[in-house]
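TEACHING EXERCISE
Course module: macromolecular assemblies
Task: Read the component lines below, then compare them to the predicted structure of the full complex.
Student: A.B.
Group: 4
Components provided:
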Amino acid sequence: MSGALSTPQPGQGALTLAVPRGALFEETLDRLDALGIATAEVRDNPRRLLFSGPDLGAGVERIVTMRPSDVPTYVEHGAADLGVTGKDVLLESPSREVYELLDLGYGGCRMVVAARAGDDALEESLRRLGVARVATKYPGIATRHFAATGRQAEIVEVKGSVELAPLTGLVDAIVDLTATGRTLVENGLEVREEIVGSTARLIANPVSHKLKAAAIDGLVTGLRELGR
Amino acid sequence: MIHPLPPGTRDVLPTEMRELRALSDRLRASFEGAGYGEVWTPLVEYEETLRRGDDRAARAGVYRMFDDRGRVLVLRSDMTVSIARLVATRYGGVQPPVRLGYFAHSYRAVERGRGQAREFLQGGVELIGPAAAEGDAEVVSLVLAALEEAGLRRHRIGVGDGSLVRGLLAELEVPEDRRGKLLEHLSRRDLVALAVDAEELGLSPGARDLLVAIPTLRGGPEVLDRAEGPVARSAEGLRALHELLAESGAAQRTIFDLGLVRELGYYTGAVFEVYDPAVGFALGGGGRYDELLGRFGTPLPACGIALDIQRVHAAQAAEERLG
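Instructor-supplied answer key:
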């Protein structure tokens, strides 16, 4: 064995935080404000993606903004130490190696199977063709839901407004996220099955969770208190 | 013309190759200097060998093939099982301790679009013979010192007890059919699902709080003081290890992590994971596997650590950039 080890360097506590733009954006920034983290710049610059300062507050050194579905990717690779994203995103790619630290409680919505109101295309296809065609932005969740309920489904992945797919006859049903259900109703669709509920979650990179334990625990405690 | 490679594999060109060789040579010199002689084992083993060593590893993401006589072969997915086979077969009558090192590629299936390696180079050591704290401390100190020799300055090692979580669930009399899910939540550190499931178990408030807190108990030796009741025995073992690590100066790089659960099924005692702030994934890991050699007919305690050379290289490069 070789000699004495050098003294570890300090300054490994400053955090990079991934904040999702979109539905969870405002409420996430509100929570950060309440913890004393400076978010004014983030709010005022909708096109900028990276915000940094020597200390934005509560041990946060950098805030990066992105689509919610990209948050687990940045966190898994350690490009961000912590991130906020929806449970729906985490369920869609369950093999991502991130720690789920906290249910933040806001951003509530449901993953549902929806089909045209007053129409039995879904049941008809299953009965006569043996397989349902289902459009979704969440192929992982949709595939697992139909497999788990013993039905065969052809999953059609779409990127844009998934509500269009059953209206044009592309598919029999959709699997999608809904908060109020209004978009579904406006397009003549109705909820047939609830798959799972979703809220915003705080996730962490596994290495950061150990190397920056004190800073992360401080933030988790603060966010938990706010949720009460 | 561009000819594709299978996902998760790569070519190495001279600049990188020189650096990888230099890194491996430095680590090898550290290992050899501590008496760990380098061995080489075949890239392919019988599936039966892997299965004997670790039934779970035999199931997950292992490449299989048939040989010319129809026997099932596997590409090795880590070196520890091969070393256990080698020790049982070739060191049968030798007086322990046996100290071995290796630098070799292993293979695991990967998911698409994740940037994971299907072929990865591991460098590691295995110490066969010495029991718990003494052997663990030797291996941990050696790997930390070897990484420092290789130019890393900010690396750390996470140390936990691989039997803690299972022991705790047994102690709390959690029904068998509920344990699998809880273990998964604990190893993935899904604290949200863990809290929900722990609530449903109908445990005493103290027991429930302990179960939920385990994955967050990480840090210096003071963490061990918070390991009470059913996990006090694990903390006892880790405290003994801490004393030995303090002697070698390795303690200041050690993070005790009571929630550390390694995926492989053969770990029986201490488990390790190596970190560096420049890399988002663990640089390597290992642990104590006191029952593995027994499965090959040579019951001897043993432990080891393997480093992912490419990730260590990334940490080394980041360190050089910092100057």
